[in-house]
């Protein structure tokens, strides 16, 4: 049985008529740049996050970059973040001439360990970027206390966590800013690239809007060095169709996660460490990520059986060649490095069938001789 990591075809069939209708509407209106669909999505997502501003941009990477620039991060500054994340988290920091300062993760959640943050703060520290990895929020209450104590901005990298909650609060309610990605594979995915910044900070919001259009306001009058990073009207139209389904799709992901966990514990046992939803968290399971020994061998075996899996992420940022000049070495962050050798994400999407999950678990059990 072939089982993909993600299959968007069934989802598309369920919303096809609506999608085609809104795309035709955009085409007929000839309004392709920062039109009514973008405005609606910005408003709706800001409201969803209980904040006042949503600023659509070209992608999730630019969302982090623009947010940091709007917060005044510049050459000589330091930004504390996790090394166990996608490149854009660290890349956005260095593109502004600032220095990423990495700290280790909580091995249970894979998120930044708040107990490691304070030791990394210096007089150059300007911000903290917690990454809500795999769909579970970091410990934002502890992080907020540290940030407030040291007068630091907090940028929540929520590329994988739209809809997630921590003690009843959503993404964006803790940090100065939160950023989203609408890459097609995300829980709320476009049919191309897209991103958004959400914030309660009026000044950061206004600067972000200016930066995304080459730093100009009014048009052709440039106050800062910005970028061409606008959320496309066609992508916003698609996202407006999908957005009302987000919470239901999130619940379905949680149901699939519970099934995986039950089956794995029953059939495979201690060979697999299943994801843990920390008390007070609402995990939206962008990924269902297990920890196993012989990870690479298991992944190869599952591939032979037609089962797709992914490793997020095989080489932490502090060991990436591009960051060699920062002086980190293997052994600096043991929890991060161990996770990079053990983490394996299984197929996960709302339309995943029980028979598919049963097959995935059966093949994992087969690999371990269960």
Automatic annotation (TrEMBL):
Keywords per UniProt: Pyridoxal phosphate
Residues recorded with modification N6-(pyridoxal phosphate)lysine: 186
Active site, UniProt feature: 186
Protein's UniProt keywords contain S-adenosyl-L-methionine: no
Domain of life: Bacteria
Biological processes annotated in GO: polysaccharide biosynthetic process
Molecular function per GO: pyridoxal phosphate binding; transaminase activity
InterPro entries, sorted: DegT/StrS_aminotransferase (IPR000653), PyrdxlP-dep_Trfase (IPR015424), PyrdxlP-dep_Trfase_major (IPR015421), PyrdxlP-dep_Trfase_small (IPR015422)
Family of this protein: Belongs to the DegT/DnrJ/EryC1 family.
UniProt name for this protein: Transcriptional regulator
């Amino acid at each position: 049985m072939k089982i993909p990591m993600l299959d968007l075809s069934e989802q598309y069939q369920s919303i096809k008529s609506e999608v085609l209708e809104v795309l035709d509407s955009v085409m007929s209106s000839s309004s392709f740049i920062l039109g009514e669909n973008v405005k609606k999505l910005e408003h709706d997502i800001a409201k969803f996050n209980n904040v006042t501003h949503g600023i659509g941009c070209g992608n999730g990477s630019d969302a982090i970059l623009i947010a940091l620039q709007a917060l005044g991060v510049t050459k000589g500054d330091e930004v504390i973040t996790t090394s166990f994340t996608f490149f854009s988290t660290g890349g956005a920091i260095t593109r502004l001439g600032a220095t990423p300062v990495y700290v280790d993760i909580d091995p249970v959640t894979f998120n930044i360990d708040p107990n490691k943050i304070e030791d990394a703060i210096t007089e150059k520290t300007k911000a903290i970027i917690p990454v809500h990895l795999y769909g579970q929020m970091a410990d934002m209450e502890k992080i907020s206390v540290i940030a407030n104590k040291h007068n630091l901005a907090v940028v929540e990298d929520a590329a994988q966590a739209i809809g997630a909650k921590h003690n009843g609060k959503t993404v964006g309610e803790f940090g100065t800013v939160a950023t989203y990605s609408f890459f097609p594979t995300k829980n709320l995915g476009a049919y191309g690239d897209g991103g958004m910044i959400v914030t309660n900070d009026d000044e950061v919001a206004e600067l972000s809007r200016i930066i995304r259009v080459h730093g100009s306001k009014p048009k052709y009058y440039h106050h800062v060095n910005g970028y061409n990073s606008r959320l496309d009207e066609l992508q916003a139209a698609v996202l407006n169709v999908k957005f009302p389904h987000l919470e239901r799709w999130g619940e379905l992901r949680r149901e699939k996660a519970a099934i995986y966990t039950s089956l794995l514990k029953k059939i495979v046992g201690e060979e697999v460490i299943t994801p843990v939803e920390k008390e007070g968290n609402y995990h939206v399971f962008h990924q269902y990520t297990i920890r196993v020994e012989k990870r690479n061998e298991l992944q190869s075996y599952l591939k032979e059986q037609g089962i797709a899996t992914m490793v997020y992420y095989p080489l932490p940022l502090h060991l990436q060649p591009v960051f060699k000049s920062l002086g980190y070495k293997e052994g600096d962050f043991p929890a991060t490095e161990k996770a990079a050798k053990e983490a394996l994400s299984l197929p996960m999407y709302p339309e995943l069938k029980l028979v598919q999950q049963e097959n995935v678990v059966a093949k994992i059990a087969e690999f371990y001789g269960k």
